[in-house]
Amino acid sequence: LPTYGPNDLLIKVTHVAQNPTDWKSVHFGAAKPGSIVGCDFAGEIVEVGEEAIGNYRRGERVAGCVPGGVNPEFGIRGAYSEYVVQEASLVFRYPSMISPESAATIPLATITAALGLFHEMNLPLPPATCGASILIWSGSTSVG
Fold first, then answer.
1. Which end of the chain, N or C, is less packed with Cβ atoms under 10 Å?
2. Is 3 within a domain?
């Protein structure tokens, strides 16, 4: 099993989502031989680091993303592996009404949308107090 730190969760991967960055990292050579790609996952917590935030417990269902295959040092962390290690602040519990297949599609798309809105566009972080409206033009993909 991969080793995990005090702020981390060790998660058994049950479901993954295919993201364009997964195949692109292989196709364009960013993923080095022996690394494991895959970013988005859903799974079950196996171990909880002693300083992990969020009051997580073994057996809980969570979803998140990892930087799979992009850097050789992260090679064992790709979502296409049996287990992943991720900092507890970068995963989330999902309700029973959401399937693990659906939960696995949420993480990287959400981060991508958030970076566009709050980093690139400099919108205020929630709760937004400026009262500004935003138009999502052609919002038919996972990131708008």
1. N
2. no
